[in-house]
Amino acid sequence: MNFATAKSRRGSVLVIVIWAVAIAAAIVAGLQILSFRQAVLGSDAVARVQARWAARAGVETMIAIMEYHTENPDPEDALALILDLEDNSYGTLETGTYDIRHFLDGIESAGPLDEHSKANINLLNSTELMNIEDMTPDVVGAIVDWKDANEDAGMLGAEKSYYQNRGKSYEPRNASFRNFAELELVAGVWPESTRGEDWNLDGRLDPNEDDGEQTWPEDNHDGILDAGLSGLLTASSLTSPRAASGEDRLNLATATSAEVVERLGLTEPQASALLAYAKTPNARLEQLLVIPLSTLSQGGAAAAGGANSTGGAVTGGKGSGGASTQGRTGRSSGGSSGATGGVTQAGPGNLDKAAIGKVMNECTLKEFTRPEPGKMNVNTVSGRVLKEVFDLNPKLVDSLLSRRDAKVTGLTNLADVLDIPGMTPQILSSLAPKLDVQSFVFTITSRGRSITVGGESEMIVTVDRSTLPAQILMYREP
Fold first, then answer.
1. What is the C-alpha to C-alpha distance for residues 457 and 56, in angstroms, rounded to an integer?
2. Confidence of residue 330 (pLDDT cuts 50, 70, 90)
3. What is the DSSP track for 117-155?
4. How far is CA 12 from the centre of its chain?
5. Taking residues 4-23, what's their average pLDDT?
6. Looking at beta carbons, which pairs linking 138-143 to residues 24 or more positions away fall under 8 Å?
7. pLDDT-derived band of residue 42, with 50, 70 and 90 as boundaries?
8. Tens digits of residue pLDDT in 63-84
9. Contact at 8 Å (CB) between 373 and 236?
10. Residues 471, 74, 113: CA angle, nearest 5 degrees
11. CATH fold of the domain at 117-234
């Protein structure tokens, strides 16, 4: 082998070595990139897990507080539960934080959303639905036909045949709405109306819901959540057999005089008169706000009719609570305080405001068999609901909100608002079938955040606290 051949071989080896080094370097670089990507993905996965469990911790905290107040109620403080939930709406864990808040009436507040702050669509009649802005008669008719028990379509309504003829795979429930989103199945109802800017129905203002026209949905980029109908209506609020004291409500239809005296602190004549009224046809506890108990126990339904004939908006033309005329009465009250003297007349059988409030908080006139659509909580109800859905005088609504905000313990019974300027017993009596001083169903929107990377996770959980343990009615992670 001559010198030239050896030199050529050495050059070839050098090229091979260089290529081998280059290939090895490329492989190492690729492995480094792959490892980095896997590390990032692993870190993101850990962050998501941390954020999810932080959100879960927030939900569990809220449920624990609800169960505590269900087991240990304070009838003298209607805001104890609400304030406790607010105070614990933010928490820090070793690996993350949780934050729970909601929008109502354009205001962001800490804590879960009280479903009793909105009107339950299953309790609203046609007149109240028509009061809602941009609601049309055909949509109202379709909503009523969806939830009524019969299959006869109203004049502008829609029953089974309407949906079948349009190729829909569903038909009206002919029963109460099970959740708010079901409203979007009704003929003529569009998601843009029900959801507004809150496209994921979480009750919070998300970045894509406050960026103008950049991303869906369309919004006005004003920092305020316009929740559409979801800011006014709910289908989640429920009744409960529990009274404000935490005991089961006393059924006056079957109770004894001794039980009434012991439970309510009434005198024997008052207890007897109350039980006598409870046994009359069409008895309603709300009538106590309008007519003295002694009159009700003697005249019963006739006395109620007499109240209507003197201008009280009690029965609304049907003897069922005045829902169809209450808003008009509110508009025409003109600031009058009404004839409240009938409620506090002297006499062994009559009740003062405190006693009336206790009767309404602790008693019922029928056996509780299953949860029914829930009433609004006068301590949390949206002012917009009262003004728009129930067509109440805005000044009266503002006075009501001012009164409840001025009381540290909130309004502990409905009779507390009888002396508000503009409030009459007739208006309150007509509202009372839809008002209470308690809340049992809350929607928790808990947003968890990882401390390490900053990943976020959100849980939306609707909880009914009226039973122990509390029941989860809805759970989702958008």
1. 9
2. very low
3. GSEEGGG--HHHHHTSTT--HHHHHHHHHHHSSS----T
4. 81
5. 73
6. 138/187, 138/188, 139/186, 139/187, 139/188, 139/189, 142/186, 142/187, 142/188, 142/189, 143/183, 143/186, 143/189
7. low
8. 999 999 999 999 999 999 999 9
9. no
10. 45
11. Ribonucleotide Reductase Protein R1; domain 1 (1.10.40)
Query: What is the dihedral angle through the alpha carbons of 268, 362, 355, 283, rounded to the nearest 10 degrees?
Result: -80
Q: What is the predicted pLDDT for the residue at 452?
A: 82
Whole-angstrom CA distances from 128 to 144, 194, 329, 394, 439 are: 11, 17, 13, 16, 22
CA atoms within 13 A on the CB side of 161: 5
Question: For residue 24, what pLDDT is reported?
Answer: 82
Q: What are the contacts of 296-303 at 24+ separation with CB within 8 A?
A: 297/272, 297/273, 297/349
Residue 380, CB half-sphere, CA atoms under 13 Å: how many? 32
Residues 241 and 248: beta-carbon distance below 8 Å: yes
CA 472, 476, 478 angle in degrees (round to 5)? 160
Bigger pLDDT: 316 vs 353: 353
Helices (H) and strands (E) in the chain, counts: 15, 13
The three-class DSSP label of residue 41 is helix
- Which pLDDT score is estimated for 309? 34
Distance CA 272, CA 348 (A): 11
What does the CA dihedral 374, 375, 379, 385 come to, rounded to 10 degrees?
110
What is the residue extent of each domain of the chain?
Answer: 1-116+439-478, 117-234, 250-433
Residues 6+ positions from 255 with CB-CB distance below 8 Å: 275, 278
Q: For residues 339 and 313, what is the distance between their CA atoms, to the nearest angstrom? A: 13
Q: Is the pLDDT score of 342 beyond 50?
A: no
Compute the residue count for the chain: 478
E strands of 196-298, at which residues? 233-234, 250-251
**The pLDDT of residue 200:** 95
Whether pLDDT at 41 is above 50 = yes
CA distances from 75 to 62, 242, 274, 413 (A): 20, 12, 22, 9
* Range 310-322 average pLDDT: 33
Backbone angles phi, psi at 205, to 5 degrees: -90, 105
pLDDT value, residue 2: 62
Q: Could you give the CA distance from residue 118 to residue 200 in angstroms, rounded to a whole number?
A: 18
Per residue in 220-274, pLDDT (tens digit) is 999 999 999 999 999 999 999 999 999 999 999 999 999 999 999 999 999 999 9
